[in-house]
Amino acid sequence: MKIDVHCHVAKRANRASRGWTNADLIEAADKLGIDKLLCSTPVSRGQPTMKMVRECNDITYEAMKEYPDRILGYAFVNPGYFTEAIEEVERCINELGMIGIKLYNQYRADEPVVLPLIRKAAEMQVPVLWHAGHPPSPEEALRWGQPRISDGVHIAALARKVPDAILINGHIGGGGDWEWSIKALKNVPNVYVDTSGSVVDEGIVEMCVKYLGAERVLFGTDLSMEAGVGKILGADLTDEQRELIFWKNIDGILRRRKV
Amino acid sequence: MIIDASTYIGHWPFRRLRHNTAEGLISLMDRNGIDKAVVSSINAVFYKNCQEGNEELAEEIEPYRDRLIPFATLNPKYVAWREDLERCVEDLGMRGLRLYPVYHKYGLLERESSELLREAARMRLPVELPVTLVDPRQHHWLDVDTGLPLNQVLEAANRYRENVFIILNAKTVSPIIERKGAAAPPRNVYVEMSRLSAVLNKSIQAVISRLGVERVVFGTGMPFHYAKPALLKMEILDIKEEEKEAIYWKNMAELLGLQGG
């Protein structure tokens, strides 16, 4: 069993907006033995309006309806909309059946603006997957177009403020200094990391397990499908640890939901 | 049979590598069912005098000559590279070159390069070009922060038709696959597939379609990278078995002049 905790759907259902369709995504998952894909449709630049956010979530929902046994959805929101963002989360989770929240780089995890939303997530006990990475320098973060990208330090700070929130530091293999974020998250038990991203550095998964314990490591791809599966299969892990990472940890997280 | 076109041994200054000795690399190859591997010295990238790294490499792989195929790291802007090249080939049994224009601060189209490439062609040595060693998004503050531009490689391949260029560790291959209407990339360019994909954007298939299956080779990037992602890509790649064989080993064996692999 494999559950991909960090994935995305095609921007428009059945249209090759990224050069592939949701059918291609499912075909890839089949080839790699991935049973379920936890997907979102975030806006990766700028400050999206509520209208844009709702459109994104509707795209995710269309994919969920298209493949109800395979695709689960995260509600993407812009925390800057406070009450409206929380209402959108409630719509997505209570009405559309989504399983968690996806946040991108509109605000950093240690900014006070995100607190009402994270407290709501904690109340609902749904996971919050945060687009994360530690760039080599603030200048490079700017060059990436992501001056407010969060790293392990920022997510740890938030986790300490809301200790009953379930936070996921996204794509530890997504570029950026992964050793930095893993070390920053060592003593923050309510933060998980997902191993997605194109980076397949030997030892990355083992360091996650060494610092966080296998119970806080989640398998993901972020569309780097073979890299995602391959690094878990290639890492020095026990069979039990691999099972935890591939699906048992996220299965346990999803069972905690109060919705 | 599997031949890995892209492995290394030695010390990487910016992160602790595991399995980065000849013995460690052999253990990774055994674990992943890889029979032979092209290997070069990481130390040689950072020594001003690369040749000392080549000497270390030759010494360390001596017990594993049947499986490890050494490539020389040379800097055409450093003194006495001609003597070093001759020593690497004649005395140390090196079968090709691995060049790092970004680390050694030169261009493939500069005069120094042309002399080294002419010698490589004369000696029938394939030239491997790692586009990057680590993902630039996580580079150390003392490390280079860009990769080798593929357009420069294509231009060099056009100019130096007698050389064979093997591109290693490329994650995007747009200049190769998206030159619609343009002439096909020169026939002396090969691509190692470890960072490309067999699903979704299917960049491996796109390279095969553009260059032909005979110009794609298998690689892993060990011990920088896990081998399993590259092996998985080959496993699920939707091409004929004989085409997979070509990528797994036959293409590289031909370039290296290996009898029956």
Order of helices and strands of chain A: EHEHEHEHEHHEHEHEHH
Structural class of chain A: alpha/beta
Order of helices and strands of chain B: EHEHHEHEHHEHEHEHEHH
Q: What portion of residues of chain A belong to β-strands?
A: 5-15%
**What about the largest sheet of chain B?**
8 strands, parallel
CATH architecture descriptor name of chain A: Alpha-Beta Barrel
- Computed over alpha carbons, the radius of gyration of chain B is 17 Å
Helix content of chain B: 25-40%
Average pLDDT level of chain A: 96
CATH secondary-structure class of chain B:
Alpha Beta
Structural class of chain B: alpha/beta
Helix content of chain A: 40-55%
Largest sheet of chain A: 8 strands, parallel
Question: What is the CATH homology-level superfamily of chain A?
Answer: Metal-dependent hydrolases
Keywords:
heterodimer; A: 259 residues; alpha/beta; TIM Barrel; 8-stranded parallel beta sheet; B: 261 residues; 11 helices; 8 strands; 39% helix; globular
